């Protein structure tokens, strides 16, 4: 049974923490100042046993607008929302903002608990429920169950548990097609325990973790080892996707880690300052101009960013806009498909959110038609189109052919399935494959799996061959007596930045296509023929005789040239192996 996380949402003082205590027996307000003030400040966590027997993790979030960044950190990995609305107050400003956030984060399953039901008349309770129903109508949570409850009398608590169980069933069914997920844990809490070292907590949103695993701490790029794994204060042999997890980490000091960092499977996520994304502004928001500074919330991290609008000058409320999110002061960590929230810089208010489309390595030319088409493919393309696009982007970003591992990282998909996509692209003629690198793969492609293959789009391969052809044609025009150009010179002039191993594969493919003729360490156009004039033939005979007559002490190049011999003729004799 898939594990799941329930996240609370709702206005301050509407009884979220009291309700969770009534359901679980756990007071999620663990800080002294929270208990003294009766106000949730930080995230709280509790296990909840449901009628089906499954145990879900509950994340209790602050309701006060001053602590919205903590609420956003807790919303990461939520499968089912528990929206709490007090019967005596109804829908309030933070109810609306929390609901907007859940909608922007794509949370589709939930239950509404109308708390303090014992304080109002039945007619008033129905009016509140109707108001909530209307507010949900235009959101992803439209039609979810609304349950009046009282944490004091126990009214409705059993029904609420049943509805939460059903919502988790629906969430599990919706994600049943997900067969692979990379191990990922956005960190929401860090502390040190005397005698044990550094401990972090978070919601495991992908994969599994067990003691002894080596993970990568991002964006720091540091390798860490897991000493111990706990789920709701109980030591376990492994934590699975969808569970609230505490990890005791080896080789890491408390001050080296903070909320917002991510623990992930090594080499699967790449920190960056730029993300390609699609952004949807709330209808109540004001337009976001190109270059505007915003607060960006991704996973448990918060950062400032500038919004670079693609194909326009501003993002318009209620519309989907292609953007690049450029972090101002640090690198961020996210994968394709991750959700994010942006809030205005000052005063802070939720403006919108969206979906990460790709990790970017550079600013895009905003009004280029081909760039706009690229974003359209990133947003709505099928798997084959996406694989082809990421093959193209790998060449642009890394100056070499893409590997299956490159495309898998970009698509955030299992490498085996991506390799199958690439092979289908090869069969369809959209993608060109450059053999395998064998044991040299790690140096050329980066992953070092021992049997890498390189991939280029058909258009990019045509461009590569054209560049090789043009460089060789220019060389032949300048050096008509040379049998060919040195391969290394061709690489540096036609494909600067390419690794020599990838270039070797490209040469083999170009030779097979009839674009290039290889002769030992030389490359030439197949049409190139060297023809000596009678005068040049005479010089060739003299030079050959000079070497033949001095076999034990052949002349140096300056000696040959001193006699008036043309350098081109000497180079021709060297190229053809006569000298």
Descriptive terms for the model:
28 strands, alpha+beta, 579 residues, 17 helices
Please, could you describe this protein's structure?
Helix 8 crosses helix 9 and helix 8 packs across helix 10. This protein is 34% helix and 26% strand. It is an alpha+beta fold. A six-stranded mixed sheet has the order 2-3-1-4-5-6, with helices on both faces. Strands 7-8-14-11-10-15 form a six-stranded antiparallel β-barrel.
Topology:
Elements: E1 5-9, H1 16-24, H2 32-37, E2 44-49, E3 55-60, H3 68-74, E4 80-86, H4 93-104, E5 110-115, H5 122-136, E6 145-148, H6 157-174, E7 184-193, E8 197-203, E9 208-209, E10 214-218, E11 222-231, E12 234-235, E13 239-240, E14 244-250, E15 262-264, E16 274-281, E17 288-289, E18 293-298, E19 301-309, E20 314-315, E21 320-327, E22 339-344, E23 350-360, H7 369-380, H8 383-398, H9 404-411, H10 415-428, E24 431-436, H11 441-445, E25 453-457, H12 458-478, E26 485-486, H13 487-494, H14 500-513, E27 517-519, E28 522-524, H15 534-548, H16 557-562, H17 567-575
Parallel strand pairs: 1-3, 1-4, 4-5, 5-6
Antiparallel strand pairs: 2-3, 7-8, 7-15, 8-14, 9-13, 10-11, 10-15, 11-12, 11-14, 16-21, 16-23, 17-20, 18-19, 18-22, 19-21, 22-23, 24-25, 26-28, 27-28
Helix pairs in contact: 8-9, 8-10, 9-10, 12-13
